[in-house]
Amino acid sequence: MSMLALVLIAIVALLHLYFLVLEMFLWTKPLGRKVFRMSLEKAEATKVLAANQGLYNGFLVAGLVWAIVAQRADVATFFLACVIVAGVYGAATVNKRIFYVQALPAIVALAVVWFAR
After folding, report:
1. What is the pTM of this model?
2. How many percent of the chain have pLDDT more than 90?
3. Neighbours of 73 (CB within 10 A)
4. CA 113 and chain centroid, separation
5. If 32 and its partner were Cys, which of 26, 41, 44, 67 is the partner (CB 3.0–4.6 Å)?
6. CA of 100: how far to CAs of 3, 18, 30, 87, 95, in Å?
């Protein structure tokens, strides 16, 4: 894979590592509540669900890191596609901003992976 593809995949992985930290460790803290625009009460009521979502983000990070280390376009394609599907679904069901924060960077990375072959 090209250096550009590897860098873009790494950016997507870092975004999801950030989401993991927010969802698993900072959900009820001021930063987590600010990012997700929640009251303390709502954050407390949903912290277990958020931690579960954070764990899934960790699996995406692991797959993207695997793709980088092994330089496997097929692995990168699979995990970037997972990120795109999650981002599109989140944008359709929760907040359109999710598309730009989550799906769009993965779409760009996937395009570079495919066209740099």
Report:
1. 0.93
2. 97
3. 19
4. 17
5. 26
6. 23, 16, 23, 8, 10
| Count of beta carbons in the 10 Å neighbourhood of residue 41 | 9
13 vs 28, 63, 77, 82, 106, CA distance in Å? Answer: 23, 9, 13, 12, 9
Q: Which residues of 88-103 are buried (b: 16+ CB within 10 A; e: fewer)?
A: bebbeeeeeebbeebb
CB–CB of 41/96 below 8 Å? no
Cα–Cα distance, 111 to 4 (Å, whole number) = 11
117 has pLDDT over 80: no
What is the 3 state secondary structure string of the chain?
A: CCHHHHHHHHHHHHHHHHHHHHHHHCCCCHHHHHHCCCCHHHHHHHHHHHHHHHHHHHHHHHHHHHHHHHCCHHHHHHHHHHHHHHHHHHHHHCCCHHHHHHHHHHHHHHHHHHHCC
